[in-house]
Amino acid sequence: MTTSAAVREGKVSFGPVMEVEAFRFPNGLRLLVQRDNAAPVVCIQSWVRVGSRTEREGKTGICHLFEHLMFGETEKMPHGAFDRTLEEAGVETNAATFLDWTYYHQNLPKEALDLSLRLEADRLTHLVLREPQVTSEKDVVANERRQRVDDDVDGAASELLYKTAFVKHGYGIPTIGWMPDIQGFTPEDCVTFYRTYYAPNNVTLVVVGDVETEALLALVDKHYGALAPSSIPHEIDRPEPAQTEERRAELSLPTPTFKLAIGYKSPALAHPDHAVLSVLAEILFGGRGARMYRALTRRAEMATDVRGWVGTFKDPALFDIWLSAKPGVTGEALLASFDEELAKLFAAPPDEAELEKAKARLELDTIQGLENVSGRAETLGLFDTVLGDPAALFARLDAQRRATVADVMDVAKRYLKPQQRTIVMVHPDGSEDSDEEDEADEADADDASGAGQ
Questions:
Q1: Is residue 409 part of a domain?
Q2: pLDDT per residue over 120-169, tens digit each?
Q3: Above pLDDT 70, what percent of the chain?
């Protein structure tokens, strides 16, 4: 008999041997529990159902800013006390923000369960959002943007790729936000956002590890039960119009060789095509033995880096492809070589052995991701937040197992169309060559100086 006020929503199989229990508290908090008594450790993750997709122009980056603010001062604890208190108890903490979600992560010894839940609930409702705390974190985020986007080749190219590919949908908004928006947030902006989205009825608490369900329910009720729900606004629907022609953008950045960021419009995670398209991505880009890697790095000797993956998002997104040219190879030549290999795929589909090898690699990666409590918690949180089904990973795995060569070629023809892709070409701006020449000149000068002594 459950001693808390939580309603048991049900129990679902999580693979062949594991189970997940779902509960709902009166204030709307959702709790997912996957017990594993193999070791005295627990992972707690708080998944907040808000991401950069919900933001609007002029207020971009507030979801990511909150990832930082949530580690700050609360009404009960001074700045720095959250991390320090948990670290002293042997707890590891982290967080992440993306297009569809924000989540907060704790790995802990089971003895710290009460402490961790108390502090997690405290910052969910008692965060201090005034000056100078807000300005301090804005400065941290602004510096992060400079390092990870403005001064980073991949970061700048990725931001431009999504901005160009999405003309209406929120996926075109960078998660870190535009710099003027980051610098313009006020404490009032932060309070409004916090009171709207950081409430128990917008959170799924995922607990995986060495716990007893009844005791856990009592602890969650103790720390979260009195928290008030909020009125979550209905998200404005901004469907992306169909892309009917190739889009291109260019950047000139300090990179030694040309780089290409290519995005083909891809289906949402819930779409039946998504699992099959992931099999195709594995055939093309799954490691050094994959088709594109062998073709572009070994046979054609055009590239040094070849990567590709399908975004796992709530709405249709991108099949991201990243190519780095070898010295002396232009971006257009690398793109032509890539397109030639795609044409070969359509002319010579994968055989059964190639297909089965790709599916086996995907399954291995999936199973390896579930080996520890942290991996399982992240999987449960992601699929519950994006699909509303914490155990959906295994239905997806079954769909990948069933995929045939005909299925793979069908999605290839449907999604790998030139008119449905966006290309960002990064040109070397010459600064790296200049730096190398300057370093060489300095080395020569040092050698000459040493020779005269």
A1: yes
A2: 999 999 999 999 999 999 999 999 999 999 999 999 999 999 999 999 99
A3: 94
Give the 3-state DSSP-derived string for 41-59, with helices as H, strands as E and coil as C: EEEEEEEECCCHHHCCCCC
Q: For residue 266, what is the domain's CATH number? A: 3.30.830.10
pLDDT tens, position by position, 48-102: 999 999 999 999 999 999 999 999 999 999 999 999 999 999 999 999 999 999 9
Please tell me whether residues 217 and 260 are part of one structural domain.
no
Same domain? For 271 and 185 the reply is no
Mean pLDDT of 302-327: 97
Domain-embedded: residue 60: yes
Count Cβ atoms below 10 Å from residue 366 Cβ, excluding itself: 17
Q: Which of 224, 259, 285 is the last residue of a domain?
A: 224
Q: Which long-range contacts (CB under 8 A, 24 or more apart) does 248-251 make?
A: 248/422, 248/423, 248/424, 248/425, 249/160, 249/161, 249/164, 249/422, 249/423, 249/424, 249/425, 250/424, 250/425, 250/426, 250/427, 251/156, 251/157, 251/160, 251/424, 251/425, 251/426, 251/427
308 and 412 within one domain: yes
In the predicted model, is pLDDT for residue 314 greater than 80? yes
Say how many domains are in the chain. 2
Q: What is the Cα Rg of the chain in Å?
A: 25
**Distance in angstroms between the alpha carbons of the first and the last residue of the chain:** 87
- Residue 448 in any domain: the answer is no
Strands (E), 88-152: 92-97, 102-109
Helix or strand (DSSP H, E) at 182: helix 179-184
The angle at the Cα of 73, spanning 71 to 76, to the nearest 5 degrees, equals 120
Annotate 327-347 with DSSP letters as a single string.
Answer: TT--HHHHHHHHHHHHHHHHH
Is-contact 259 386, C-beta < 8 A?
no
CB 356 within 8 A of CB 295: no
Structure-token match 């959170």, residue found: 203
Tokens of 139: 């400065």
- Average pLDDT along the chain: 93
Q: Tell me: the pLDDT tens digits for 249-308?
A: 999 999 999 999 999 999 999 999 999 999 999 999 998 889 999 999 999 999 999 999
Domain assignment of residue 378, given as a range: 247-432
Same domain, 207 and 317: no
Structure-token match 């062949």, residue found: 16
